[in-house]
Design brief:
Helix content: 55-70%
Number of helices: 8
Largest sheet: none
Radius of gyration: 19 Å
Structural class: mainly alpha
Number of strands: 0
Shape: elongated
Order of helices and strands: HHHHHHHH
Length: about 200
């Protein structure tokens, strides 16, 4: 701790509402601080200069973004195990074989989504506007505000980060888990400091 998914398009909107509700619940710090666990989002896709079968007028970077967006939506709506590469290709309007110019397999695609999300999260924390809150109480308030602001617009990414960790290979899981622990350690350090100062009782 940190001191510690459907099928058709018509069903996606209601599924998203459910996911957003779960995200908001997960972000309720009044309940979660003692058992805090978190993480989030998505992608570093391999670029290729090779020609690929794709919609007229599109380019490689646009297709890569569509791939990430489609994979995020489909994994969140249907679950990673139920989604095929052919289904993702159909969603963005390319031939299935074209996807392999961007990612070697579905496992790598999932890993890239989770890895990008975590790297984006950690970078956003490092770049935040108020990095030097002084007291443990100030630091905790800063962390909570940052955490909520970052995660609320990313309901699908948060949902995938929680629900699809189990589908990562052991090697990929270890990478993501280490990034998650790095983020959780930020909160742990704040809580430890507050306990030492007498501001918090844990």
């Amino acid at each position: 701790g940190a001191r510690a998914w459907c099928g058709e398009r018509g069903a996606r909107s209601s599924a998203r509402v459910v996911r957003q509700t779960k995200v908001r619940s997960a972000l309720d710090f009044s309940n979660k601080i003692p058992h805090y666990h978190l993480n989030d989002r998505s992608v570093s896709v391999k670029k290729s200069g090779e020609a690929m079968a794709r919609k007229s007028g599109s380019n490689g970077e646009k297709t890569a973004k569509l791939l990430r967006a489609a994979a995020t939506d489909l994994f969140a709506s249907n679950g990673y195990a139920a989604v095929s590469m052919r289904q993702i290709a159909r969603e963005i309007g390319v031939q299935a074989g074209a996807l392999y110019l961007y990612t070697p397999d579905k496992q790598t695609l999932l890993f890239d989504l989770l890895n990008h999300h975590m790297e984006e999260l950690l970078q956003a924390w490092a770049d935040r506007a108020t990095p030097h809150a002084e007291t443990p109480i100030d630091r905790l308030e800063c962390f909570v505000r940052f955490h909520i602001r970052f995660h609320l617009p990313r309901a699908d990414e948060v949902f995938i980060s929680y629900m699809e960790l189990r589908n990562l290979s052991p090697e990929n899981f270890e990478v993501i888990q280490n990034l998650r622990q790095t983020y959780e350690n930020i909160l742990n350090d704040i809580l430890n400091a507050g306990q030492e100062s007498g501001d918090f009782k844990l």
